[in-house]
Amino acid sequence: MERYQSTLFSTGPFELGEGAFWWPERSAWCWVDILGHSLYMMDGKGQRTQYHIGEYVTMIVPVQGSNELLLGLHGRVARFSPEQGLGRTLAVLDGNPGLRCNDGKCDPAGRLWIGTMHLTTQRDNGALYCIDHNRPPVIKIPQVSISNGIVWYGDRMYFNDTVTNRVQEYAYDVNSGEIKFLRNVVVIPAELGSPDGMTIDSEGMLWVAQWGGGGVYRWNPVNGQLLGKIEVPAPQVSCCVFGGPDMQEMLITTAREHMTPQQLEAHPMSGNVFHARLPFKGLPVNYFKY
């Protein structure tokens, strides 16, 4: 197994860092603190800006042909721009105040896929939704506990529900957006944590942020083999994304949520954001299309 090192990128500490995102048009790294209700943006000069959103903010995706982003919020998706702040709501996902949005990304056709989860992590109360342009949200995978880590590669979609410790593979039709479960491609041993955020490289290998696993792990979805690990000096690793001018850098978020004073003393870097330079290229981000 290859090992790679991460370095400190931005000091929080953030209670629940998530939503790592590279914004090519601004050459900026972005992330959120879900429980801090804030979005952060670091430009190429190292200038960090905080945007207080005022509610849970969980996910960031860019909108094609605009200067805007879409944000996953408590139970809705809304437009946002750094200059104008929060804009109009694109979609309400459930209407149940006990649920909030979690991870989400756009597919190659420009549809938004976003999951929900229960605020007290009751099992099977969330779902994975698809928002196809201006149409209402449609549930694609029901009874999800903690929806996370969704990526596409060719005619395949990969997704994980954190509590299952598995990365699932689906057949994916880019034209219709239809999916069909095929198999579990990665089963993560308990001692390596649970799958959280996920990204993919140009070779089709999966990079999984593993909550409780102290790193981002590189897995081969063809045979389930563990290929590598980025060491992160915090146990609760929550999200990872490729970016940078050559797409060979990775931003990694971590969390302090639920950690005891003793655990925080043992892992004082928890809740910070980290960065790694890698010998692999990531795939460019997909944009939401109205």
Automatic annotation (TrEMBL):
One of its GO terms (molecular function) is calcium ion binding. Residues 16-256 form the SMP-30/Gluconolactonase/LRE-like region domain. Its cofactor is Zn(2+). The active site is at D196. Substrate binds at R100, N102. A divalent metal cation binds at E18, N148, D196. The keyword NAD does not apply. Binds 1 divalent metal cation per subunit. InterPro entries: 6-blade_b-propeller_TolB-like, SGL, SMP-30. Pfam families: SGL. One of its GO terms (biological process) is L-ascorbic acid biosynthetic process. Keywords: Metal-binding, Zinc. SUPFAM superfamilies: Calcium-dependent phosphotriesterase. Belongs to the SMP-30/CGR1 family. This is Sugar lactone lactonase YvrE. It comes from Chitinophaga eiseniae.
